[in-house]
Model the fold of this input.
Amino acid sequence: MYQVTFAYKNRETKKMQTMTLEAVEFIRRFLLHVLPKKFMRIRHYGFLANRCKRQNLSKCREFLNVSPEPRAVEEKSIQQLMLQLTGVDITQCPKCKKGTMKKRFDLPQGFGQNPFYLIHPEQFKDTG
Done:
């Protein structure tokens, strides 16, 4: 009989584990997640349903006696956010730890994905 080995994340230990099942049992379990034709998977329902989410969440906040609207998100730059979260200044030179790195130029859209950039690198050298 054929067997299938697959990896999954154990929710209790939060670690990856492997499991080996008979092929028929694996297919049976897999097909439990397949919906019949013309059915649509609904990710959220109840108060998290998209149709009335804003009104329902404001009612939930009211019932829980918390502020009716969530606090405004403070706009921060990437540098400020990384410094706050990790304590690492990403603008500081990684070698000398004294100098400050500055942006010289923007990379073109899709840089590194197109073989043209590998074949003609001289067109993208910094001239300054």
Summary: Residues 53-63 form the longest helix (11 residues). Helices lie at 23-31, 53-63, 78-86, 115-119. The chain has a mean pLDDT of 82.
